[in-house]
Amino acid sequence: MTRFPEGPAASPGFLLWHVTLAWQRAVTAALQPLGLTHAQFVLLASAWWLSEQGEVPNQLRLARHAGTDVKMTSQIVRKLEEKKLLRREIDPADSRARRLRPTPAGRNLARRAIAAVESVDADFFGRHAPALTPLLQELADGR
């Protein structure tokens, strides 16, 4: 039995799934000309943001900030390093850890990609953004 006798269209989770897929398609299309996947964008933009705030995060800090799996983060960070968008440096406080710094090319690409994704967000969420943002923040915080 379902709590939604009207069908899946009355289920917030099912609707969120469809909205998420539509938004992800739009973001993917915007990032494609920049040569980034959505996950690469999230991690590069997060590394850029943290560095702009004066941090030199390690991979665990980056994963926590981005909300990504640590193992996946490591794989994507390696790809971003291959693309010369991030540098991994040994953490002086822990030789097993790697600190992450966006390269000049990475900082430039992060800024361009953020502008592209913010444009998608503005188009996609439009006039609903002011009402949606506090709700999404509350849901993301687990309240």
UniProtKB/TrEMBL annotation:
<dbReference type="InterPro" id="IPR039422">
    <property type="entry name" value="MarR/SlyA-like"/>
</dbReference>
<dbReference type="Pfam" id="PF01047">
    <property type="entry name" value="MarR"/>
</dbReference>
<dbReference type="InterPro" id="IPR036390">
    <property type="entry name" value="WH_DNA-bd_sf"/>
</dbReference>
<keyword id="KW-0804">Transcription</keyword>
<dbReference type="InterPro" id="IPR036388">
    <property type="entry name" value="WH-like_DNA-bd_sf"/>
</dbReference>
<protein>
    <submittedName>
        <fullName>MarR family transcriptional regulator</fullName>
    </submittedName>
</protein>
<keyword id="KW-0805">Transcription regulation</keyword>
<dbReference type="InterPro" id="IPR000835">
    <property type="entry name" value="HTH_MarR-typ"/>
</dbReference>
<keyword id="KW-0238">DNA-binding</keyword>
<feature type="domain" description="HTH marR-type">
    <location>
        <begin position="9"/>
        <end position="141"/>
    </location>
</feature>
